[in-house]
Write a structure and sequence with these properties.
Elements lengths: L3 E4 L3 E6 L2 E7 L13 E5 L21 E8 L2 E3 L4 E3 L3 E3 L6 E13 L2 E11 L5 E15 L2 E12 L5 E4 L13 E5 L8 E4 L2 E3 L10 E7 L6 E8 L9 E5 L5 E5 L6 E3 L4 E12 L3 H19 L1
Antiparallel strand pairs: 1-2, 2-3, 3-4, 5-6, 5-13, 5-14, 7-8, 9-10, 10-11, 11-12, 12-22, 13-21, 14-20, 15-16, 15-17, 17-18, 18-22, 19-20
Length: 303
């Protein structure tokens, strides 16, 4: 069945029949403290189960899946307070915005949905910071799996070198978050994490690999879902270090600046490419590996 694409002026809705599998909010109405930026939320597997969480009370800046970067030189495009060495988390009034400019492609056909977009990154005090070219695609793999492919290229438009990092590069252990970040439903807490080397939980924080999967269970129904995230071999620092939590909440992020800073000189561009396969049920390690391979192939088609 062909996917359908609708645009209401603030969000794109992608549906399969009567099921909305994905909503992309490109004009959010969030407070500045939450670093307003586009996000994918909600996301559903093809059985109709939601596999994302919006604005949880513990971290209101978490929004389904979003490109989120907490330490972009002096600026914060993550939301909330900024972690600084020897200071901890500080409210610096530096929560920037990733502002939608225009779509340069909106296509829905028998092969899936493709979207291309331009954005401006604006600091909280109103300065143009970065420009971004973004693209994503949604494709069906089977009756129980679909893939979101995502690509971004952001350019330093300032006159200064901007050092990309994370709370870990600022001195906080195992807090290397930043990038293509997913927050899972509350019921996914204490879920299982799969990698090419086996399965586990929070002890897998910071492992390297081409892919990582998270299996969670749903409340009220006897069902589970697995999300399989992939990292592109040409991304900075590949194979990437993964930020992952199963407690106190479910989260996965391929984190290119986990514990290594990346200086961006004026005019430099960073490109990040990721994909996530949304799978009905528990794939297990072998099934997750196969889904990762298929997702990587879809990401290659995105370009």
């Amino acid at each position: 069945m062909t996917l359908q694409l609708a645009d209401d002026g603030t969000a794109l809705s992608i549906t399969k029949g009567d099921l909305e599998i994905l909503r992309y909010v490109y004009r959010p109405d969030n407070d500045q403290f939450e670093s307003p930026r586009p996000y994918f939320e909600p996301l559903h597997d093809l059985a109709g189960h939601q596999v994302s969480l919006y604005r949880p009370h513990d971290h209101v800046w978490h929004k389904g899946i979003a490109l989120s970067l907490p330490n972009a030189g002096p600026e914060n495009f993550w939301g909330g307070r900024t972690f600084r060495r020897d200071q901890g988390y500080v409210d610096e009034k530096n929560d920037g915005t990733m502002a939608h400019k225009e779509f340069t492609e909106l296509t829905a056909n028998e092969h899936g949905v493709r979207v291309a977009e331009t954005l401006d990154w604006i600091t909280e005090d109103g300065r143009h910071f970065f420009s971004e070219q973004r693209a994503f695609a949604v494709t069906l793999l089977s009756d129980d799996q679909w893939v979101l492919s995502f690509s971004t290229a952001f350019t330093n438009d300032t006159r200064d070198t901007v050092v990309m990092g994370s709370p870990t590069t600022e001195g906080r252990d195992n807090a290397g978050y930043g990038g293509f970040f997913w927050r899972g439903p509350r019921s996914f807490t204490e879920g299982r994490v799969y990698t090419a080397d086996g399965e586990g939980g929070d002890e897998l924080m910071g492992v390297r690999g081409d892919w990582m999967a998270f299996r969670g269970a749903h409340d009220s129904v006897d069902a589970s879902s697995t999300l399989v995230f992939t990292d592109h071999a040409e991304n900075p620092g590949a194979p990437v270090k993964w930020f992952v939590r199963t407690t106190p909440f479910a989260a996965v992020c391929p984190a290119p600046f986990f514990d290594t800073e990346l200086p961006m000189a004026p005019g430099d561009t960073v490109t990040l490419r990721h994909a996530v396969a949304i799978c009905n049920g528990d794939t297990g390690i072998d099934g997750a590996a196969k889904a990762a391979e298929l997702a990587a192939a879809e990401l290659a088609r995105l370009g």
